[in-house]
Specification:
Blueprint: H1 2-24, E1 30-36, H2 41-49, H3 58-62, E2 65-69, E3 89-94, E4 97-103, H4 108-119, E5 125-126, E6 129-130
Parallel strand pairs: 1-2
Antiparallel strand pairs: 1-3, 3-4, 5-6
Length: 134
Amino acid sequence: MRDMERRFRMLWMAALAAAVTSISQPAHAAELIMFEQKGCEWCEVWDEKIAPVYPKTAEGERAPLRRVDIHDPAPTDIAHIRSGAFTPTFVLVDDGREIGRIRGYPGEDFFWGMLQELIEKLPDEVAGRDVDPY
């Protein structure tokens, strides 16, 4: 019986620790929305060249990627943001407000530069904490 109590206590503590960790992680105010569609050749090229590294970059940490198929109903929180007819279209959003967009995939070098210009337009505060400029 004591062994079961000990196991239960350990599982409970592990679950509590996981819950506290997830609560303490800041929510991202900014996100990069990728409007895409099945069969989009340029979406596939982006998936091959950029998608594997994007979450590991400073840009990916600052604005996590969110994919939206242009043929699906728009999620309610971004229904006011037009996807456009061309895919991929990348829209940088901060707290539901469009900061800017990249229409199409201009190639790896141009994409990173254009995204950096958009990210520089984000406010200096992310997820309720000040960004250290140093």
